[in-house]
Design goal:
The chain is of the alpha/beta class. It is built from seven helices and five strands; from the N terminus they run E-H-E-H-H-E-H-H-E-H-E-H. Helix 6 links the parallel strand 4 and strand 5. Helix 1 crosses helix 7. Bound molecules: flavin mononucleotide. The site of flavin mononucleotide has 18 residues, from helix 1.
């Protein structure tokens, strides 16, 4: 979905669940609506629809100054991750971490880590805009540490992207396909997150 307003901040929304229309998808849709209500330019992608191979640690990105050697959808996604101003990743908890779809995408951002730490260049392509990222997650269980693994991974990813970790919506006890529909406050929180991240 793309809302037009070239003057406004751009937001890349990344759905990382394999379950289309499931709980994190619904929360992300609310965040997209919130951001669009502020006039942001929003691009919404679903990782499960893309071809993203796992990082091979071939160090091709070191030899080429930050260009990943694998020819798949990460080529344009890496460009988007440099071009956009704001990001929201939505992934359910899978075995105490993010989904395989999210982790494959994150690991391929090693090419951006190389740009930042080996070549000491800015990752974001726009000079004057502070980059920020947020995280949406749900899990079927309800215990204190259930989001810790995912948050550590997502914070480390945003750090490599030169984006400040600037918000989260984390909802426990959400397991079946429609569970999030009963949680109106979480849906409202996600809408507000979308508004805030582009404000
Ligand atoms: C492979 C797999 C692993 C899971 N691991 C966890 C887990 O470690 N902790 C948890 O709370 N829920 C876990 N769940 C449950 C999902 O997080 C839950 O069903 C969630 O609502 C799915 O979100 P979605 O509808 O956005 O796909 C797991 C589900 C699957 C399929």
């Amino acid at each position: 979905m793309v809302a037009n307003n070239a003057q406004k901040l751009s937001l890349l929304c990344i759905a990382a669940s394999p379950r289309r229309g499931g709980n994190t998808d619904r929360l992300l849709n609310e965040a997209v609506a919130g951001a669009a209500s502020k006039g942001a330019m929003v691009k919404h992608i679903t990782l499960n629809d893309l071809e993203i191979a796992p990082c091979q640690h071939c160090d091709g990105c070191i030899q080429t100054g930050g260009i990943c050697a694998i020819a798949d959808d990460m080529q344009w996604l890496l460009a988007d991750l440099r071009e956009f101003d704001r990001f929201i990743l939505a992934s359910p908890v899978f075995f105490m971490g993010v989904t395989a779809q999210a982790k494959a995408m994150i690991d391929r951002c090693q090419a951006l880590w190389v740009i930042k730490y080996i070549f000491k260049l800015p990752v974001g392509l726009k000079k004057d805009i502070a980059r920020k990222g947020a995280f949406i997650s749900v899990g079927g269980r309800s215990h204190d540490k259930m989001f810790e693994g995912s948050i550590a991974t997502v914070k480390s990813w945003y750090h490599a992207l030169d984006a400040e970790y600037a918000g989260e919506v984390l909802v426990k006890g959400i397991d079946h396909f429609n569970d999030i529909d009963k949680n109106h406050s979480a849906l409202r929180e996600a809408f507000a997150l979308g508004q805030r991240i582009v404000s």
